[in-house]
Structure formats: C-alpha cells, structure tokens
Inverse folding.
C-alpha cells in the first residue's frame, strides 16, 4: 500500500513539473476567429477609438474653457483687490477728515458757547444799566429844597467841593457804545464763523449726533435774524 502511494505521488510530481516547464502561449482576441469575424472586430475597435477620441476632444475643449474662465476670474479678483485697496485708502482719508472736522466742530462749539455767554453777559449789563439810568432819572426829577446847595459849611473838616467830585462816575455803557460793541469786528467775525459752521452742519447731517441737536440747528437757522435782532439797537435788553 505504501509503495502504491509513493508511485502515485511521484507521477503527480512529474506531471506538475512538465506543466510548469511548458512555454506559455500568448492569447490574442483574434485567436479562433475567421476573416469576417476579424473584420467586424476591427470595425468595432475603430468605432470605439473614434468615440474615445471625440470624448477626449470634448474634454480638451472643456479644459480650454475652464482655463479661460480662470483667467477672467483672476482678472476680476485683481480688479476687486485694487478696488478694495482704493476703498481702504479712501476710508482712511475719510477717517482723517472726520477727525479733523470733529476737532473743528468742537472748537466752533466752544466758540459758540463763549459767544452765547458773552452775549448773555452783555445783555445783563445793558439791562442793569437801563435800570440804573432809569433810577437816576427818577431821582433827578424829584428835587428837594436843599438839592441846589452843597454840603460845605466853612469848617476845616468839610472837604472843599471840586469839579471832579461834582461829576458822577459813569460805570455803564451808553446805548450808542452798546450798539458799537455788538457790531464790532470781533463780534462780526465770531458770528460769521457760527453762520458758516451752521450751514456746514445742515448740509452734512451725518456730523449731527442727535435729533435734539438737529432741532436746535434748525431753530437757529429759521430764527437767525430774530435771534440777532438785538444787535440793531443798543437800547434793546434781555428783559421783557
């Protein structure tokens, strides 16, 4: 039994070695075909090659279009980049101009408040002057029996009346002087600056910070002549 198995294994090994030692034959699609089949197979391959070539041409054309689109996109990107750089430069300039205008506005606002305070002070002085002058007029109209006599009684202690002592000191301005001061060059300059700044703010309302400020500016613009009408007469006071 063991001998038979040994012989069988030996034969199998020999047969396997023969199979492995055989030269391999190349397989071709044309093997086993007749002439008509080969012709049809060649036509099939030609049609497939034409189809593939057409698809390849379409892909190349599409790639060319994509390349053109990319170039146009790059041009647009470059244009947008330049526009952004210009816009950024304009924004920086606008920011600097805004800071300068804001500084100018604060300066003019201080000048405005100073002018209002000055005008109020002048009105108060004029009003007090008018009251004092009216009081002096009333006192002069009520003369006593000793009003025309002086107080000199001849004693050494009594001061001798002089011309300077007889004159009354005038601490208040006359209406003519008040009128001149209300219309002098300094006041005209300040009022003109206020008027120009008022027009600038109304023309560019983006600088106006609140509705209350806008209402105040509109009121000042509407009643400009009425507000400054007191400058036309030195006797006009702030009192009713």
């Amino acid at each position: 039994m063991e001998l038979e198995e040994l012989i069988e294994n030996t034969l199998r090994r020999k047969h396997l070695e023969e199979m492995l030692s055989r030269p391999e034959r190349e397989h071709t699609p044309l093997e086993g075909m007749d002439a008509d089949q080969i012709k049809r197979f060649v036509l099939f391959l030609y049609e497939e090659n034409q189809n593939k070539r057409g698809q390849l041409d379409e892909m190349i054309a599409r790639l060319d279009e994509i390349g053109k689109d990319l170039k146009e996109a790059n041009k647009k990107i470059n244009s947008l980049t330049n526009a952004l750089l210009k816009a950024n430069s304009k924004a920086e300039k606008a920011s600097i101009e805004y800071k300068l205008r804001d500084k100018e506005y604060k300066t003019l606002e201080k000048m405005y408040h100073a002018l209002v305070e000055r005008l109020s002070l002048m009105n108060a002085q004029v009003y007090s002057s008018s009251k004092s002058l009216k009081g002096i007029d009333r006192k002069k109209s009520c003369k006593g029996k000793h009003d025309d006599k002086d107080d000199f009684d001849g004693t050494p202690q009594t001061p001798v009346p002089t011309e300077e002592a007889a004159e009354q000191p005038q601490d208040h301005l006359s209406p003519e002087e008040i009128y001149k001061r209300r219309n002098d060059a300094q006041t005209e300059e300040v009022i003109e600056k206020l008027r120009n700044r008022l027009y600038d703010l109304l023309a560019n309302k983006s600088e106006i910070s609140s509705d209350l400020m806008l209402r105040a500016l509109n009121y000042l613009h509407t009643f400009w002549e009425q507000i400054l009408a007191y400058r036309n007469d030195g006797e006009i006071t702030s009192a009713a």
Observations:
- Helices lie at 2-21, 35-141, 163-166, 175-182, 185-203, 211-222, 224-227.
